[in-house]
Amino acid sequence: MAWTYMLECCDGSYYVGSTTDLDRRMEEHASGFGAKYTSTRLPVTLVWCHESAKIDQSYALEKQVQGWSRAKRQALIHGRIDLLHGLSRKGYRKPRSSG
């Protein structure tokens, strides 16, 4: 089995990765040895994960989610799969503030 996962960093940014051992990878991130990006943004929190049959599937999903907007990633985190298509970069326009 393999995993695609998303972490929320202490600065509010998201990190997307894939692994065959989610527990070990979370320990690596928490100790500062998971990735250069997360090592400077500790602590990190696992906010979403998806299990796949093969690592190549998890890696492909990782690359897909890495290309998503923040709004689309947040919809995924909150389980709002119904919003994903509407939040695609081609069709999504950030609402203007009324100020």
Automatic annotation (TrEMBL):
<dbReference type="Pfam" id="PF01541">
    <property type="entry name" value="GIY-YIG"/>
</dbReference>
<comment type="similarity">
    <text>Belongs to the UPF0213 family.</text>
</comment>
<dbReference type="InterPro" id="IPR000305">
    <property type="entry name" value="GIY-YIG_endonuc"/>
</dbReference>
<feature type="domain" description="GIY-YIG">
    <location>
        <begin position="1"/>
        <end position="75"/>
    </location>
</feature>
<protein>
    <submittedName>
        <fullName>GIY-YIG nuclease family protein</fullName>
    </submittedName>
</protein>
<dbReference type="InterPro" id="IPR050190">
    <property type="entry name" value="UPF0213_domain"/>
</dbReference>
<dbReference type="InterPro" id="IPR035901">
    <property type="entry name" value="GIY-YIG_endonuc_sf"/>
</dbReference>
